[in-house]
Amino acid sequence: MSIVRQQHGGDGQAGTTGVHRQDVGRAPEFRAEHHEAGTGELVRQAAQQVSDLMRAEMRLAVAELKDKGRHAGTGAGLFGGAGLVALYGVGVLLAAVVAAIAVALPVWAAALIVGAVLLAVAGVLALMGRAQTRRATPAKPEQAMDEAKLAVAELKERATHR
């Protein structure tokens, strides 16, 4: 490969001197028809390649999220179906309880007993839910706000003592 460098003499004229270097198997041969890209062109190509790579990664991420969303939707639907079937199963079990009690009592009395027990369970659950809901209101972080106010007051106090 031949590298040509310009030399500047003290008289202001520029001359050229040929410098030869032999790196067999490492340096490509210089051909006049071969265009070597400059730094600006290489930076532009690198930026374009990074941009293309990022777009490809985004397309892959979107496809992956669509696939996961489809599976999540299917799973949620199956859970909903399982819940509905379980609800029907509970209804059948309650009917069996009524039928079992109906062996000793009239059917209306057995249904009345089962209904009263279910309403009592619903009442207990409602009271527990009400208590939990009251603990959640008001919907603001009161403890964190109080601690933040204390921290601000302490910082103000320290700032005035210096």
Protein model, in words:
The chain has helices at residues 39-101, 107-136, 142-160, and strands at residues 2-8, 14-20. With 162 residues, the chain is mainly alpha-helical. Strands 1-2 form a two-stranded antiparallel sheet. A hairpin with a 5-residue loop joins strand 1 (2-8) and strand 2. 0% of the residues are buried.
Q: Write down the Rg.
A: 41 Å
Order of helices and strands: EEHHH
Shape: flat
Mean pLDDT: 81
Largest sheet: 2 strands, antiparallel
In helices, the fraction of residues equals 55-70%
Structure summary, number of beta strands: 2
Strands in their spatial order, largest beta sheet: 1-2
What is the count of DSSP helices, taking H or I runs of 4+ residues? Answer: 3
Strand portion: 5-15%
**Backbone structural class:** mainly alpha
Low-confidence stretches: none
